[in-house]
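Weekly structure sync, notes
Attendees: PL (lead), two postdocs, one rotation student
Agenda item 3: pending single-chain targets
PL asked that the sequence for the first pending target be pasted directly into the notes so everyone works from the same version. It is reproduced below exactly as submitted, 308 residues in total.
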Amino acid sequence: MKSSSRSKDFSKLFRNSPKELYSEKFYDAMDVNSEDLNNYNETCNEIYVNDHKDKMILICEKYLRFLDKSASWSGVSSFYDISLLLNYWIYDKLSRIYGDNNTDAINLGFGALQGKWSTYDSIIRDRSYYEKCRPDPKKVNHKDWENRKKLHDYFVDFDIIFGQGRVFNNLCEVYYKKIKEMIPVCTYFEEKCSPSGTYSCPDHYSKCKEKNLETALKELPCYHTLKAREVSNLEGDFTDQPPRPAERTQDSADGPSAKSHTHLDSVDSGIQTKVTNSVLGAAPVLLTATMLYRVPGFAGSVEAEQIV
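Predicted structure, written out during the meeting:
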């Protein structure tokens, strides 16, 4: 839970965020539990949802705070579409509450917030930024919404990442991680958008084509340091793993494996010895019986039958 803070407008929350990237600062500011959330408690207590009303009340309060106090911040957001950032924030919160696949509950949550938007304040409703603040699930409700959110955040942060990434060493690791995160996302949309079809390609996919992310990564001053750290961590993870079953049989001659083989050999040898002894022991018996069969006068012998 974000720490409590006094708030007069959203721009203050935005500026006070410790995050570096615009998208992260926005989401961080939206999450702050400022004291003025109590101003919206009465309105949000009347929100109509089927489940998790307590969590929806908090989302409603934070949404109305933004709606009420973002006018002074509108100039900061003129470089990108604030409505997408806001709707992605809402969708992310609702999906965490109801689950990604529970589309009906998510849409119901959006509908409840739309009701608050349409009836909140007739005075500010005519302001230019008000329409941009309308909750609209159609903008963000896609099966791959998480990748689309990452792509839009990347678009918002693009100039900071590539404008300052090679200048400020203290922020280099932040930009390094962001670029690495975007490589598989851009690859994903490249595969989706390349063939012509029914797939709705995101508007900001072009940002993936503006920069070769692998090259941009290597141009960062911290690249070699962080790359070496990743390799070291990977090697450490590998050496810490126990040997695989196939490797455990490669013991020395005096080890457990050798003892096991010796035991098996001795068992096999014992079995062979018993079998041999049984066969050899049976041989004299058979031989004796044969000889008696041929002894004259012995009952049952051939000669005895002839004498009789």
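Discussion points:
- Confidence is low (pLDDT under 50) at residues 247-269, 271-308.
- The chain has three domains: 1-141, 142-225, 269-308.
Action: rotation student to compare against the earlier draft before next sync.
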